[in-house]
Automatic annotation (TrEMBL):
This is Type I pullulanase. Residues 170-544 form the Glycosyl hydrolase family 13 catalytic domain. Residues 620-647 are annotated as: Disordered. It comes from Candidatus Limivivens intestinipullorum. GO terms for molecular function: pullulanase activity. The lineage of its organism: Bacteria, Bacillati, Bacillota, Clostridia, Lachnospirales. Its EC number is 3.2.1.41. Gene3D superfamilies: Glycosidases (3.20.20.80), Golgi alpha-mannosidase II (2.60.40.1180), Immunoglobulins (2.60.40.10). Belongs to the glycosyl hydrolase 13 family. InterPro entries: GH (IPR017853), GH13_cat_dom (IPR006047), Glyco_hydro_13_N (IPR004193), Glyco_hydro_b (IPR013780), Ig-like_fold (IPR013783), Ig_E-set (IPR014756), pulA_all-beta (IPR049117), PulA_typeI (IPR011840). It is an enzyme of class 3 (hydrolase).
């Protein structure tokens, strides 16, 4: 067998792609009543054999056939038989070595993804699937990050035992706390909360969990079969069609409640280097350094070579497949900084072509875990290269996150809410979603559509753990509300880890990827006990949808923010909140983020200012709509002459006026 360096030289030679680039999207297995076809791309193979099995594991092949070599390094086998539900794998002979491999393009698989499965996808559609529609585009992207098993594992979820921790749990639209019939959990809770997207942590087939073990747990960032759903969330992991049907059912159930679905995708690395990729086209899909050592910018043992033509096609086709076959409404790219900007933009263009501009959400982590051997000339999709990405490719904004509560790595470091110094500038840039003049900062976004504004995700400590670690007990809840009040009123799309709104804790653990499900599961009792905080989030979500000045995703949205002021622990600004049709109730907003203990004096331009939310109550705007709202300054805030008042300490204050911002004297 050739060495990695020799393979690399072979693929890098310009004649390779000229001879072997295969542009059609028919690789893998297609199957239906009229017959079944298998196609595998393996230019270096001397021979390829197809094995057919009755089961996903165990019994030997009932048939082996030699595949025919075809154009561009594609091996083919076609039969008039309908092989739906038949499992298969390949034996590929390269440089005289014969290796068994699954199909990298498989759309179905047996238990633990070891054997691929021929599947007629039509026969996996749940009833009603043809009527499933993407919910209308929401006024704001409010993304709730969820792990399938964590979601319903706990008995408090009220989901019947046999469906806890599975895709099926999503099909219960009226579950309640321990089945008490009163307090909503799971999907009914989410609907009530007002989030507009659920981001499912990996639901493609990953390798770190034995699908037979019901209580095994992993986040799932270890892909085995990119185009097959994970089996451990299925009620029948051994039946390759069940996982497909059940994931579709989950998507359909979310859609039925008006919630869109984002899929977390991990194209930057595979579980092992010894993957189907490697076994079919050695070293083509992976990056190596000049001396042949394996590039490991993912810190997971390998980096997928997204810049290679067939690899880029693979990733693109995979995304399009999930969008089309599973009705996914968005994609979150893990370690997007390991992929290249050209590919991300191409995925954006192809999705736009099929579904409309920006209709499918696309965003990712604009960083890597280490250096990667990306081919020279390719531009990594890192934060510093945001200017090379389409305005509708977004990134997680760690700058806003860190300005809020301090670095997630240097946990001694504090942010704006927990007593950090010099965070005000970052908070203000965060408010404008890092758009506007670029001077004095590392990067600039083209538009708020490029920014995911968030405080916590599955990585690092939960917000509650971080707060309880860094501030005195009597301030815990206040600080959580302050944090939510800030980032949920910043421009950009909004994102939160499930349970952030009800004080989710992992006992301080900052990386629970393989911790027991008992630590990771959502505790629905906590959601009830901490309903005050959850209600505060809920009010902010609802208010947000009424504030076009913050939801605006166009490139000039940042110019809506005016009269920004900062002082240690204090940030304030006005927002032009007019919408296109001039129908916004509040034409101008005034926001104060006060992280000081003391109330802060505020002087406002002459106008009637209605109180929309403060550090205690995020639903005061409802009183305004109902005609019973209070005008600023309220009794408790009167401090100065005329209209002057004080913004209470440790909280946000959100005011709205019906006067247009241009009619006001804002300095
Ligand atoms: Ca699996």
């Amino acid at each position: 067998m050739r060495t990695a360096e020799e393979w690399n030289a072979y693929y890098t030679d310009s004649s390779f792609e000229k001879s072997f680039f295969y542009g059609k999207s028919d690789l893998g297995c297609s199957c239906g009543p009229d017959g079944t076809g298998f196609r595998l791309w393996s230019p270096p193979a001397q021979a390829v054999y197809l094995n057919l099995y009755r089961d996903g594991e165990g019994l030997p092949a009932f048939r082996q056939v030699a595949m025919e070599p075809g154009e561009k390094g594609v091996w083919k086998y076609e039969t008039s038989e309908d092989l739906h539900g038949v499992y298969y794998d390949y034996e590929v002979v390269i440089d005289g070595e014969r290796n068994r491999t699954g199909d990298p393009y498989a759309k179905g698989a047996g238990i633990n993804g070891q054997r691929s499965m021929a599947v007629d996808l039509k026969r996996t559609d749940p009833s009603g699937w043809e009527k499933d529609r993407r919910p209308p585009r929401p006024v704001e992207n409010i993304v709730y990050e969820l792990h399938v098993k964590e979601f319903s594992w706990d008995a408090s979820s009220g989901i019947p035992k046999e469906h806890r921790g599975t895709y099926r749990a999503f099909t219960y639209t009226d579950s309640t706390l321990n089945g008490d019939g009163i307090h909503p959990t799971c999907l009914s809770y989410l609907k009530n909360l007002g989030v507009t997207y659920v981001q499912l942590m990996p639901v493609f087939d990953y390798g770190s969990v034995d699908e037979r073990k019901k209580d095994a747990f992993n986040w799932g960032y270890d892909p085995v079969n990119y185009n097959v759903p994970e089996g451990s969330y299925s009620t029948k992991p051994g039946d390759g069609t069940a996982r497909i049907r059940e994931l579709k059912e989950a998507v359909m159930a979310l859609h039925s409640q008006g919630i869109r679905v984002v899929m977390d995708v991990v194209y930057n690395h595979t579980y092992h280097l010894d993957s189907w990729f490697q076994k079919t086209v050695p070293w083509y899909y992976y990056r190596t350094w000049e001396d042949g050592t394996v590039s490991d910018g993912s810190a997971c043992g390998n980096d997928v070579a997204s810049e290679r033509a067939m690899c880029a096609s693979y990733i693109l086709d995979s995304v399009l497949y999930w969008a089309e076959e599973y009705h996914m409404d968005g994609f979150r790219f893990d370690l997007m900084g390991l992929l290249d900007t050209e590919l991300m933009n191409r995925i954006r263009r192809e999705l736009d072509k099929r579904y409309g501009q920006g209709e499918i959400l696309l965003y990712g982590e604009p960083w890597a875990a280490g250096h990667t051997a990306m081919k020279s000339g390719a531009v990594p999709a890192l934060k510093k290269n945001l200017c090379f990405l389409d305005a509708n490719v977004g990134v997680f904004c760690d700058d806003t996150r860190n300005a809020l509560k301090g670095s997630v790595i240097e946990t001694e470091e504090r942010g704006f809410i927990n007593g950090g110094e010099d965070c005000e500038e970052g908070i203000l840039w965060g408010a404008a979603a890092w758009c506007g003049p670029a001077s004095g900062r590392e990067f600039r976004a083209k538009a708020p559509s490029q920014i995911i504004t968030y405080a916590t995700s599955h990585d690092n400590q939960t917000l509650w753990d971080r707060i309880t670690d860094t501030v005195p007990k009597d301030l815990w809840e206040k600080m959580n509300r302050l944090c939510a009040g800030i980032y949920l009123t910043c421009q950009g799309s909004l994102f939160l880890l499930s349970g952030e709104e009800f004080k989710r804790t992992k006992n301080g653990m900052d990386n629970s990827y393989c911790a027991p499900i008992g630590l990771n599961r959502l505790d629905w009792k906590l959601a009830w006990e901490n309903r005050g905080l959850a209600e505060y989030y809920r009010g902010l979500f609802a208010l947000r949808k009424k504030l076009p000045g913050l939801c605006d995703k166009t490139k000039d949205a940042w110019t809506r923010i005016r009269g920004a002021k900062k002082a240690p622990g204090l940030v304030s600004f006005f927002v032009d909140n007019e919408d296109e049709n001039g129908s916004a109730r509040w034409k101008t907003l005034f926001l104060v983020y006060n992280a000081r203990k003391e109330a802060a004096p505020i002087a406002l331009p002459e106008a009637k200012w209605e109180v929309l939310a403060d550090g205690e109550n995020s639903r005061l705007w409802e009183d305004q709509e109902g005609g019973s709202g209070k005008v600023w300054p309220r009794e408790q805030e009167r401090g100065g002459k005329g209209g002057a008042g004080k913004a209470p300490g440790y909280g946000v204050l959100i005011l709205g006026s019906r006067r247009q911002i241009d009619e006001m004297d804002i300095r």
